[in-house]
């Protein structure tokens, strides 16, 4: 397959008018990519006024409504992907903005036929001052690249749907994202990790991390709070147990074991001994890490002992 960027379509999911300034920036950042995408689809999650506004502001893009009866970003992304016949589909969240060269860097690894999907680096951008207690190792809680990820390009188990590209044939072979396994209501399930595991298994391919494909993702002030962080960790614990149920049990959580047994203990030891080196401020993120692990453990325990399950295997159809 040719790896020209013109072989790529882009899907930008969105859902609410309050995203409008960020959504405009997101769409503009996609349209500014050179070489350009073959087609840009903006998928709107059950919000016709927003869809009309997008059509009026961006006549050069195609809008589509979420074709599923319920709200949810998984179905919204699937609805946008349905319209594309390009060999590769790229995804960019509607509140994220791509840096120059994002699309070219995100699609270059497809020159290797063993690559079934690629993910880029996501930088959290704090709308206010970043709290001093935020640990680098837990930036995933805000959708960002975190300490412990590879710093150079290479194979990984999974990437994030906020900045992702997939080989269309493999994506369709697994039915796309599970439409009721994701961020819906009060649950936050790792629908992107689930997709990566299924695509690797069915296509026999690998996922590739491309840190030069950079996007910026805003973090609002209401998410720069400890209670948000702990809630996010709690949901992560629940979500990973639900993920294991759907994907061959504990073997699907190998990356999490490596993180909990390697990345986190090293960071905690480094932070706990930092005052001996004159850096007492490092105790704040260290304490937050321990609290985050505890919250994730509570979430996992709740899910293991009868928490609400999400086990659907429904797929989207063309």
From TrEMBL:
Record-level Gene Ontology MF annotations: glycosyltransferase activity
The UniProt record lists the keyword Transferase: yes
InterPro entries recorded: Glyco_trans_2-like, Nucleotide-diphossugar_trans
A Pfam entry, by short name: Glycos_transf_2
Residue stretches making up the Glycosyltransferase 2-like domain: 10-174
Pathway(s): Cell wall biogenesis; cell wall polysaccharide biosynthesis
Keywords, comma-separated and alphabetical: Glycosyltransferase, Transferase
Protein family per UniProt: Belongs to the glycosyltransferase 2 family.
Name of the protein this chain belongs to: Glycosyltransferase 2-like domain-containing protein
Native species: Actinocatenispora thailandica
Lineage: Bacteria, Bacillati, Actinomycetota, Actinomycetes, Micromonosporales
């Amino acid at each position: 397959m040719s790896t020209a960027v013109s072989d790529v379509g882009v899907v930008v999911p969105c859902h609410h008018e309050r995203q409008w300034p960020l959504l405009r920036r997101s769409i503009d950042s996609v349209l500014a990519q050179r070489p350009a995408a073959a087609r840009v689809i903006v998928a709107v999650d059950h919000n016709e006024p927003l869809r009309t506004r997008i059509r009026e502001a961006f006549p050069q893009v195609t809008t589509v409504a979420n074709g599923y009866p319920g709200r949810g970003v998984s179905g919204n992304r699937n609805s946008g992907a349905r319209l594309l016949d390009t060999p590769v589909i790229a995804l960019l969240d509607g509140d994220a903005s791509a840096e120059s060269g994002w699309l070219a860097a995100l699609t270059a690894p497809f020159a290797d036929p063993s690559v079934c999907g690629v993910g880029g680096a996501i930088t959290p951008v704090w709308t206010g001052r970043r709290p001093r207690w935020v640990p680098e190792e837990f930036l995933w809680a805000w959708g960002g690249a975190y300490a412990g990820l590879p710093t150079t390009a290479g194979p990984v188990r999974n990437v994030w749907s906020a900045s992702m590209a997939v080989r269309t044939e493999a994506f369709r072979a697994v039915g796309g994202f599970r439409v009721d396994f994701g961020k819906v209501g009060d649950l936050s399930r790792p629908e992107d990790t689930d997709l990566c595991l299924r695509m690797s298994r069915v296509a026999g391919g690998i996922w590739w991390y491309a840190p030069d494909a950079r996007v910026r993702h805003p973090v609002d002030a209401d998410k720069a709070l400890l209670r948000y962080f702990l809630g996010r960790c709690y949901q992560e614990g629940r979500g990973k147990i639900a993920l294991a149920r759907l994907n061959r049990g504990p073997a699907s959580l190998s990356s999490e074991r490596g993180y909990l047994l390697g990345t986190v203990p090293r960071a905690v030891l480094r932070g706990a001994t930092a005052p001996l080196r004159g850096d007492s401020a490092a105790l704040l993120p260290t304490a937050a890490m321990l609290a985050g692990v505890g919250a994730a453990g509570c979430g996992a325990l709740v899910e293991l002992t009868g928490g609400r399950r999400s086990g659907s295997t429904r797929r989207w159809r063309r």
